[in-house]
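DM from R.C. (forwarded with permission)

"hey, sorry to bug you on a friday — could you get me a structure for this? deadline for the figure draft is monday and I only need the backbone to look sensible"
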Amino acid sequence: MPPTKRQRGGTHSDLDEPARGDIWFADGNVVLQAESTQFRVYKGTLCSYSEVFKRLLDGIEDYKGVDGCPLVHVSDSSIDMEHILRTIFCRWSYPDSDPLPFGVISAFARLGKKYRIQPLYDNALLRLQYAFPSSYEEYVKSNVATKILFANPTNSRVPQCEIAIDTIVLARELDVPSLLPISFWLAATRIELLSAHDSPSLSDADRKILMSSSKPLRIAHASYLYGWLDENHINPDCTRPPTCAINKTRLALKLWKPPGVTPAFGWQLGLAKPLCESCIAAGLNHHSAGSQQLWRELPSFFGLRSWEELLVAPPNAQG
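My reply, with the result:
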């Protein structure tokens, strides 16, 4: 009998009639079964990509299970398995330069690490780091939603905050803590998504972090970035004191008084135009210093170590 791994907690049972997956080569020489879906592929190709697959498939040639091919059960979801088999055997399916759905990226990350397929893992990690950067400069200048995913089936762009919770779960699973500060930040500023999000994998501890950090983050964001709009913050060089005072109040109400806050660090020059040049310059200086301070302190709002410590050991598929 070949080495097997049964699905744990999935939908597969011995009584299910296995379905044939989309990845099925008539001349393939091994059948993988994930949950109740089977894939007929080439043993040699799998082994060339992964030492883990090589060990798993070693010595199974004499066992005939499906259409004369050895049958090997793996403990992965059928969807995740299809994603990695599709990219191994049908490379045109997921071009490196194209945005990908989050489900594909997470499959690359999880199974790339499990089976030690470094190119898959690196591809996923690069996209995740682009979307949830650990550099202040990258976060400010990047259009972080463009490279990671499109929503299916309409190809409309998915807001970053809507995958933040899934990214928290994935970062914990992969032990990539550098992804956590921004994913927590995005999720905490859209806390209403937490109750609507169907993610039983999110730990109770992380749910508590999100709930408890939301209000302190709003206060810090308002104080650090927009404290200069407070009526008690006087600019002695203001050239239009009455007008600027009124406009500052209006800006304060628009930018941070409402519940919730856009997770932004960049300077919004258009909003400051009603102010005099001196107040704009003073606001820019305050905003720049405050946004960098908030960035430095961001991990601490979620009980995480400093940025420097989070980045100390770059992760890889071999870890």
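R.C.: lifesaver. The CA atoms of residues 12 and 182 lie 36 Å apart.
me: no worries. Residues 1-77 form one domain.
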